[in-house]
Design a protein that fits this description.
5-stranded mixed beta sheet; 552 residues
Length: 552
């Protein structure tokens, strides 16, 4: 048998997860369509039935070659893929190696390991600069000496219509300190600013248009009594009971973000997580010494911190107005309060409302009473607790998920089907969701930030959360490496935008009828078609209808 006969290949959609230790059963996906300014991804899976073979080359032959990026899908370990009481909509529950990281084809190129299914990830991004037509994309595998091993041809139809501007506000929390820790650079050194720039650029390319902005070190996932590295954009100077503030670093941050396409800024929480009982860590220069002046030992209801906020918030609002950020600025009180924290949250909310009544205040929470009592203007309920907010017709509603949303609803864990990740776009459209929040863009610490982790080796935050919850990007040598979960989530955002376009063409009621045609029950956040074929065929149907209506 010649080498050409030893390679088995299969074209796949972006929604298949190819495991090295199991047979590949998904059907081929060899053609698709995209709107002209969309990003389209598909995979080529391969299995080598020979001895170990290194330095395999991949070539793309297509008119679209200048707009195509090829990456290999890396395998990443998961010791804790899920909780013991998981639902049935998962791929597996066992620890092991999971496909997730998207890695550049380096000098070593591909290595064919015998009898293992692997895949390469093909991304097409024409930026709307290519004429509408159907384009064949030939993917060729060759040895280092040029011998043909195998090839596949994918047919991609570029449609003339364009996705409209994204209106969904999306944030996945950006952990500035994790960058400094992993890369070993001083916080807000030039090296750090360069990394911040690269990681924000990648975020906005994937529809993340709101950035968590650390005016003070965010009091998020921090052990009680513990500290995260200081990342504080506002310089504070204390003299007795008086404070002075400098906003130079914050201004640089704002300008950098805007240059990368950020549209909204969520200023970090002004009270601690899970109860709003304490102040965040705040550093200041006092009598020539740089030291912590607030933190876990600060009573949030005490006069000292209130005096600080009485001086700080007017200055911050002046900065916002001077930089024309009034329509771009959002605030937080405290993350994920429960009913037992109602009184402390009320106190914190009242303190902030004195100054922030003209700004949206958003917080992730799940109990409707916080909104009913007027304590939060824009509640962000978890997707498995959103029904009460929908039933009460809360306007301009947001949604979020994290590790706790692992039964029935959409999420992005390693062990979940990619269809479960992508379905969210359709759900956000149906329920007119204004914004979406997820807490981990690049959280590379253990749970409670006790110690740093290597995200290529530890993917569960030190047995804190199921793999896939804490981050969607990996730290590459010089900047971010995407995950397939980030790419699929962006496909969900593109689905949402395509549905908005179709709504402009045929009306919302007709779009909803199309989405739910043939289903046994209406789509909700917990009830929806589970299989990838439905999502793929539905998106093709949407594209066909857009193309048909755009002719007239």
């Amino acid at each position: 048998m010649g080498q050409k006969d030893m390679l088995e290949t299969r074209l796949l959609s972006s929604l298949t997860k190819v495991f090295a230790d199991e047979e590949l059963n998904d059907k081929p996906w060899n053609k698709g369509s995209m709107l002209s300014n969309e990003v389209y991804s598909f995979q080529v899976a391969y299995c080598w039935h020979g001895e170990l073979l290194k330095e395999v080359d991949v070539h793309i032959v297509s008119e679209l070659s200048p707009y195509i990026k090829v990456r290999k899908v890396g395998l990443v370990p998961s010791e804790m893929p899920c909780y013991v009481d998981h639902d049935e909509n998962i791929l597996r529950s066992t620890p092991g190696l999971y496909p997730d990281s998207l890695l550049p084809l380096d000098d070593e190129k591909l290595t064919f390991l015998p009898e293992q299914w692997r895949s390469i990830w093909i991304t097409v991004d024409t930026c709307g600069s290519v004429v509408a037509s159907t384009y064949p994309i030939e993917i060729i595998f060759e040895t280092a000496s040029g011998e043909l091993l195998g090839k596949e041809i994918f047919e991609l139809e570029l449609l003339q219509a364009r996705l409209p501007r994204q209106t969904l506000i999306q944030t996945q929390w950006f952990h500035t300190d994790c960058l400094a820790t992993w890369y070993g650079v001083d916080v807000f050194s030039e090296e750090h600013w360069n990394l911040i720039d690269k990681f924000i650029k990648t975020a906005t390319k994937h529809g993340i248009n709101m950035i968590l902005t650390p005016i003070f070190t965010p009091p998020l996932d921090t052990e009680v009594g513990g500290e995260r590295p200081t990342v504080q954009l506002v310089d504070v100077y204390k003299a007795g009971d008086a404070y002075r503030f400098e906003f130079d670093k914050l201004k640089r941050w704002i300008e950098l973000c805007i240059s990368n396409g950020v549209e909204y800024f969520e200023f970090s929480h002004l009270f601690t997580q899970w109860g709003a009982k304490h102040a965040p860590k705040i550093m200041a220069v006092e009598d020539g010494e740089y030291k912590r002046i607030f933190g876990w030992d600060t009573d949030a209801a005490g006069g000292e911190y209130k005096n600080f906020l009485d001086q700080f918030l007017p200055e911050l609002i002046n900065f916002i107005k001077e930089n024309n950020l009034e329509q771009r600025s959002y605030f937080h009180v405290s993350d994920e309060p429960s009913l037992e924290h109602l009184d402390s949250y009320r106190n914190a909310s009242n303190i902030l409302n004195k100054y922030l009544k003209d700004f949206p205040v958003i917080d992730a929470l799940s109990n409707y009473q916080f909104y009913e009592d007027g304590l939060v203007k824009k509640p962000i309920p978890a997707t498995d607790h959103i029904e009460a907010f929908l039933e009460n017709n809360v306007e301009n509603l947001w949604a979020y998920y994290c590790c706790g949303q692992y039964k029935e609803v959409s999420n992005r864990f390693f062990n979940m089907p990619s269809a479960r990740n992508r379905i969210l776009g359709i759900q956000l459209y149906k329920f007119n969701i204004e914004g979406f929040l997820q807490w981990g863009y690049n959280f590379w610490y253990s749970q409670y930030s006790r110690y740093p982790i290597n995200p290529f080796c530890v993917t569960d935050a030190g047995y804190g959360f199921p793999s896939g919850d804490a981050f969607v990007v990996y730290p590459g040598k010089d900047g971010p490496l995407e995950s397939l979960r980030l790419e699929v989530f962006y496909e969900a955002i593109q689905d949402l935008r395509a549905l908005k376009l179709l709504e402009d063409l045929i009306g919302r009621e007709a779009v909803l009828d199309m989405l739910e045609a043939g289903l046994d029950a209406p789509i909700t956040f917990s009830q929806y078609p589970k299989d990838m074929e439905w999502i793929l065929s539905k998106r093709e149907q949407i594209n066909r209808k857009i193309a048909e209506c755009s002719k007239y």
